[in-house]
Structures are given as C-alpha cells and as structure tokens.
Amino acid sequence: QANAQLESKVARRTRALTETNARLRKEVAERQQAEQTLRAAQDELVQAAKLAVLGQLAAGITHELAQPLGAMRTLSGNAVAFMKRGDLDTVEKNLGIIARLADQMGRIITPLKTFARKSPAIPAATDLAHAVSAALFLLDPRLAKAGVTVINRCEAGRDIAWCDQNRLEQVLINLIRNAADAMADAPVRELLIEAGPDDAGGLALRIADSGCGLPDPAAGRLFEPFFTTKPAGEGLGLGLAISRDIVREFGGELSADNRPEGGARFTLHLPAAPKDAP
Ligand code: ADP
C-alpha cells in the first residue's frame, strides 16, 4: 500500500513538474518574442531619428548642390554657343569643369546615401577620425552658417574602435548639432573634438563646445527620452537617449559634464578594436 501511495505521489509530482516546465518554456518563448519586438522597435526608432536629422540637414545640402548645378547649367549653355562658333577648345574646357562639378556633387551625395541607409548595427574596426570627418562633412554647411570654428584633433589611423561606423556617425551628428545649438548665442563658437585611449583600456572621444553649458537641473535628466529645453518644433528630446542606447549597444558609454572654462563636454567611451581585426 505504501508503495502504491508513493507511486501515485511521484506520478502527481511528475505531472506538476511537467506542467511547470511547459509553462516556463512558454514564458521563455514569449520573452524572446518580446525582446525581438523591442529590438525591431529600437531599430525603427534609430532609423526614424536618422531621417529626422536628414530632414533638418536638407536645407543646407540643397544649397550645396544648387551651386554646382547652377554652374553646370551656365557652362553647358556656353558650350553650345562656343560649339556653334567652332571654338572647340573652350567647349572641351567647359566639359572638363562640368565633369569635375558632377564629381563634387557625387561627393556630397554619397555620404548622405550611406548615412540614410537602414543598416543593422554590425561592429567592426572603425577609425574614429573617419567617423568624425564624415559627420563634420554632413554638418559642414550648418556649422559654417552658424560661424562655428572646428578644432578637430583626431588623427586618421590612430584610434580604432570596435563599433558600427554608420551608427557612430549618427551619435556624432546628434552631439555636434546639439553643440552648435548651444553655441547659437555665445560670443565664441568653438567646437573641440579629440580622441585617445581612456583609463579602462578602451577609447574616449570627446566633443566639447563653448556654448551655454548643460542646464543645471537638467544634468540628471539629459539622457531621458523626450527631455528637451528647446522650443516646440525644434527639439524632440530623443537625440541623447538614442545616442546613449547606440553607444551602450557597442559595450560603450556616453556621459556629459560641464567644462571648467564654460560649455558642455560629451564623452564617448568605446571598446578598442582587437589588434588583429581587419
Ligand atoms: P533635443 O536636441 O531634441 O532637445 P537631445 O536629447 O539631443 O534632444 O538633448 C536634450 C537636451 O540636452 C537639450 O534640449 C539641451 O537642453 C541639452 N543639451 C544637449 N547637448 C547640449 C550641449 N552641448 N550644451 C548644452 N545643453 C545641451
């Protein structure tokens, strides 16, 4: 009888355990599904923020493209006139200039295309100086218009991080645009960018400005989504939240402080690329 009792107890217990096990499996599957959905939503958000930046850059870029385009129109009109006069040397010269202008327009458009591409974040050996120049290139019209002097101390081939260049550019564009906004009313408008090894064996990239500095009470909330001190329509308050997410995804960190001499400074800590990385 004792044996029978024991067996039925074991059977009951086994059933209970099997049920628990099935429930846990279901929960794990649901969790994995939720994580996938979250990641997809984050990717969409990163892409949406990128397109918003592109929208804001559009005015400056159309201006950059309008100049060579206008010159090409004039040169081709002249070429027809010179051709009718039989002055083929000038025609050839004009065509040469047109080709160079087309190349120049291509150089403006290519980084834009790369930046706009929706690509998954794939870490690779990334030269910090390259990412910085690509971001500066896209923001060049805006910085020039705002009268910002850029001091870029990054050196190509020196600081190689392990991250995704496209996403890193997005972070840099956010930080540099914020710096330009913060310096709008400053008497001195200086943007300082430097990179080098950090204390933890990784790399640090610093973006410092001579603007108004971080708003004191805001310091703790800076990276919260939708925190902005900008007027409605100018800031969504997502730039820093998304930037920190991107940097953390690479195993890095993004922090901010005020410089003793005034202005804000953002520091990106990134893992260094392994020595044998291609
Ligand atoms: P947004 O630019 O849309 O406001 P962000 O998340 O990029 O959103 O920035 C949040 C806030 O952080 C800004 O509104 C501003 O108050 C502050 N901030 C960011 N960068 C700087 C900076 N370089 N100097 C001063 N304040 C800054």
Rg, Å, rounded: 27 Å
Give the helices and strands as they follow along the chain.
HHEHEEHEEHEE
CATH class of the largest domain: Alpha Beta
Instruction: For the record, give the distance between the C-alpha atoms at the N and C termini, rounded to a whole number.
Output: 72 Å
Give me the side-by-side strand order of the main sheet: 2-4-5-7-6
Shape: elongated
Which parts are unreliable, with pLDDT below 50 for 5 consecutive residues or more?
Answer: none
- Estimate the helix proportion, in percent: 55-70%
At the fourth CATH level, what is the homologous superfamily of the largest domain? Histidine kinase-like ATPase, C-terminal domain
Briefly note the CATH topology name of the largest domain: Heat Shock Protein 90
Ligand types: adenosine-5'-diphosphate
What is the number of helices? Answer: 5
| Number of distinct beta strands | 7
Query: How would a textbook summarize the main sheet?
Result: 5 strands, mixed
